[in-house]
Amino acid sequence: MHLGSIWFTLLSCAFFMGLVGWVSYQKTKGEVNDSTGYFLAGRGLTGGFIAGSLLLTNLSAEQLIGLNGQAYRTNLSNMAWEVTAAFAIVIMAIYLLPKYLGGSFTTLPEFLSTRFDEGVRRYTVILFMFGYIFVTIPSMLYSGALAVLQLFDIPNLLGISYVQSVWLVIWIIGIIGAIYAIFGGLKAVAVSDTINGIGLLIIGILVPVLGFVALGDGNLFDGMKTIATKNPEKLNGIGTNQDSVPIGTIFTGMIFANLFYWASNQYVIQRTLGAKSLAEGQKGVLISGFYKLLVPVFMMLPGVIAFHLYGDSLRTVDLAYPTLIANVLPTYLSGFFLAVLLGAVFSSFNSLLNSAATMFALDIYKTQVNPHASDKRLILVSKYFGSIVALITLFISPFLMQAPDGLWDLIRKFTGFFNIPIIAILLVGVFSKYVPSLAAKVVIFFHVIAYYLLVWGTNHLFNVTVDIHFIHIYAILFFIEVAMMLIIGKIKPRSTPYRFKAKATVNMTPWKYTLPTAIILLALVALTYIVFSPIGVAYQNGVVSPAFGYWIGALIIFTSILVHLSLKQWHKKYKMVIQKQNEKSINIVS
């Protein structure tokens, strides 16, 4: 890229980012002066803003780089992480969100403190901080830096080494993102996410289209035919034991990993906790599930296209998407792409910093240090803490260059240290009345040690490899930990049973179309797996198999029956259950 193109890219990027910043400022003026405004957007987010923010918080450069890298290396089996999240999203929307909003909680640790005690609250915050600071935030920054480096060729441009370039870009991205998150609060993040989300959808459609055109020597359909007929196994989403995500893992540990992410991960659920009503929160959560189904097209097909274009010539698998972008995207769109890419990076980075700062201010500082802290003091403390977290992660991020099998697998393995114990404690806490806080504390310490031993420790310490996929280990430990908690609950139960106390500050009437929308979403998950399987486009002897039409027809009939039942019968019963659960708070918000 010559100097004139670079300046055009930078200026057009600055224009788009400035536009997003100006709109966000106009939408949030004077709304972050109290803690509810800063941490929960004044509990005024509508379904569209929640869905847009969830989309961009979740679909960051980590996915753009990581998932395309895995598709380039193997096939589409890694789509399971995204597509099967719909199951967790449905559970969140139908069951857990009414609990969170009904109890008027600000953070997940706060919810756990009411169910268990302050000790569980502190340990949960520590687990979250460990995951955010050492895994999630560094991965966001590093993956964004990779894409920027490939787009601009910083080493040659500035005459510095590749390693120095990675450090430089990470620090530039991190500092800009931190300023935005620390001073804007949740609503600024949600508004900017929604606008950037629209840009991400445009880019998500455009890149595979341009890739197909390049693969087909100028003909879109020739390119599509090429990936469907040459190496069709690359389009298979049904993973084998040789793939990083075997199909069996969908029914074991992945269920709980996705449940953690969509139902208990603070930086995701914080958007839903800021909903103006239960109905708006349910709309936002469920709409985000439909976005997830686009992931194989937006964030994996480009990796398959890159395989067909470049073979195995790339230095690392994580360069598949950046290389394709550099080669097929017109110069006049490079600034727009860079703005969207940085918007995605900033979104996830901002969201994580905002959530980390929220938990520290409300779950540690206010409960342990200064119980009478004013809103102004809480916001100030959260900004200081967010700055410290940002600084630490800027030093950690560049070391992800050492990941041998790509960024994606490394992140998923390290996430296992904190996702399973949190979701196990949450579910046992919700569904049991007598399990004490001791059980939750035992599980947290047990999990960290046991997970390390099973995934790495036995090999490091005893030179013995545990030949079990790490996602299966998720499930094994989940069931062991749930059993441990229930046994402790039998031996040493709480003196008084836990009872959920409704104190909602928003309208708790559920969305009329929650159940039918959930059914359609789950049906589309099944459809996605039919399409990206040997029955569909991964069929070896043609574009799709002869059985493809029969499977689709059966799915449509079954889904139609369930949707009809949900509208005619199930919604009324569901509405009654939610109203009974929150009957004490209905008068407050009506």
TrEMBL record:
Main subcellular location: membrane
InterPro entries to which the protein is assigned, alphabetical: Na/Glc_symporter_sf, Na/solute_symporter
Keywords: Membrane, Transmembrane, Transmembrane helix
Highest taxon in the source lineage: Bacteria
Transmembrane regions listed in the UniProt entry: 6-25, 37-59, 79-102, 123-142, 162-183, 195-215, 245-263, 284-311, 331-353, 384-402, 414-431, 438-456, 468-489, 510-532, 548-567
Signal sequence, start to end: none
Membrane association type: Multi-pass membrane protein
Cell location: Membrane
Homology family: Belongs to the sodium:solute symporter (SSF) (TC 2.A.21) family.
The name this protein goes by in its record: SSS family solute:Na+ symporter
